[in-house]
Design goal:
alpha+beta; Ribosomal Protein L9, domain 1; about 150 residues; about 35% helix; Large ribosomal subunit protein bL9; 3-stranded antiparallel beta sheet; single chain
């Protein structure tokens, strides 16, 4: 089945591309979620027309993401947690905690943009990657400290 992607799909393609997928994947996943449209003649002609619009939109989104990355590059977040022996935390610090701490500082970030290999379970300083766009990433400094 040939489909035209309306949004970027991981391991498949970018928005505006014409790709071939298995019938079930296209019919049961891509089409209902409006991630793609069937590649009919009319849709292919419309795709050609919309490529310029899609390119302009992606450039605008990338520019906004780069601007936000500059602002977030200087941000430092401090999270206080109860600690036990050897500076190990009771529980852990997750991306949700980091997103809430950023929101408290006035920086709105979707928690799904934060990428943490595994939850933080000890005190110290960490760098957390923030993927704002597929080509733009920023590093946020996170300090986990003991509660007084």
């Amino acid at each position: 089945m040939k489909v035209i992607l309306r949004e970027d799909v991981a391991n498949l393609g970018k928005s505006g591309e014409l790709v071939t997928v298995k019938d079930g994947f296209g019919r049961n996943y891509l089409l209902p979620r409006k991630l793609a449209v069937a590649a009919t003649e009319q849709n292919v002609r419309q795709l050609e027309h919309e490529r310029a619009v899609i390119t302009a939109r992606n450039a605008k989104l990338k520019g906004a993401a780069e601007e936000q990355a500059k602002k977030l590059g200087a941000v430092k977040v401090t999270i206080r947690r109860k600690v036990g022996e050897q500076d190990k935390l009771y529980g852990s610090v997750t991306v949700l905690d980091i997103a809430e701490a950023l929101a408290a500082q006035g920086q709105t970030v979707d928690r799904r943009q934060l990428h943490l290999a595994e939850p933080i379970k000890a005190t110290g300083q960490y760098e957390v990657e923030l993927r704002l766009h597929r080509d733009v990433t920023a590093k946020i400094k996170v300090e986990v400290a003991a509660e007084a």
